[in-house]
Amino acid sequence: MLSIAIKFKEVFSRLKERESHYECCPSHEDWEKVEKVCEILEVFNSATKIISGNDYPTSNLFLNEVYRVKVLLDKRMNDENEFVQAMVRKMKSKFDKYWGECNLLMSIAAILDPRCKMRVIEFCFPRMYPDREAKENIAKVRDALYEIYDEYAREYQFGNEHSTETQVHDNGISGMNIEASSSGDSTKFHAFEWWKASTLKYRILSKMARDILAIPITTVASKATFSAGGRVIDTYRASLSPDTVQALLCGGDWCRNLHGVKKKNKKEKKSIEIALKIP
Q1: For residue 190, which phi and psi values (nearest 5 degrees)?
Q2: What is the pLDDT of residues 28-68, one digit of tens each?
Q3: Distance between CA 21 and CA 15 in Å, rounded?
Q4: N or C: which terminus of the chain carries fewer CB neighbours within 10 A?
């Protein structure tokens, strides 16, 4: 709404000249504030479209968007405009409450995107955290990644005791010599489908990747992302047991599949320009 209003800011001043009862015309300073707010919200809007633009967004999409928001808020904290500083300070306090600490699931999922691998956290973490904390987080994510892989490797070997085809590491994690085709539209790339198609080549790593990428990070509806209703998780939802959370997350899909109900496809809204003649 604000971005549309900016396009018609000259109309408001003309309306004030013609209508004596119109007393809420935004000043030049007000429009400057609106423009700065729109610049900040554009990053959030872009992240929302990427994450919520899919019916089932995989967890590898989140780290890059969280990184963009984090860098933006840190930069705007020192904005010359006091109004922007005060606004960003409140936004950053809420952001740090949920995303201030290193999220292992989000980080490992980003690494399992074959286009990124370890490079993604080696690039993002030094810009998101202080030097010492960044190094600690990188080491923590790497250790967790190897630990999870070793567990999958042991399960694979246990089920293939008579097979000499694969060693414990089979250079899956240690080498990570995985390259995804960079041709075409990157927004149409689906890491989950890529790993599914690469099952025969990366037997252990593909199973691990598919399990991790299938874990949902958010349950917030896309239409409620910018709601002013204060969508904060209450103490009842925050204290649910893992089994209950899993049942709630999966229950919707199970019910839709049972009754043959499909989600409505999201259709892009076409913008229509209307020319109004002013006498």
Answers
A1: -120, 110
A2: 787 788 888 888 888 888 887 777 665 567 788 889 889 99
A3: 10
A4: C
With helix as H, strand as E and coil as C, how does 29-41 read?
Answer: HHHHHHHHHHHHH
Enter the DSSP assignment of 232. P
Cα→Cα distances 51→176, 222, 271, Å: 26, 9, 22
Rounded CA separation 76/268 (Å): 31
What angle (nearest 5°) sits at the alpha carbon of residue 79, between those of residues 74 and 81? Answer: 145
Residue with tokens 């967890």: 59
pTM of the complete model: 0.66
Q: Can you count the helices (H) and strands (E) in the chain?
A: 13, 0
pLDDT tens digit sequence for 135-178: 999 999 999 999 999 999 888 877 665 444 444 444 455 545 55
CA 277 remoteness from chain centre: 43
**Cβ count near 246 (within 10 Å):** 12
> CA triplet 142, 143, 144: central angle to 5 degrees?
90
Calpha distance 85→92 (Å, rounded): 10
Q: Angle between the 62-76 and 104-111 helix axes, to the nearest 10 degrees?
A: 120
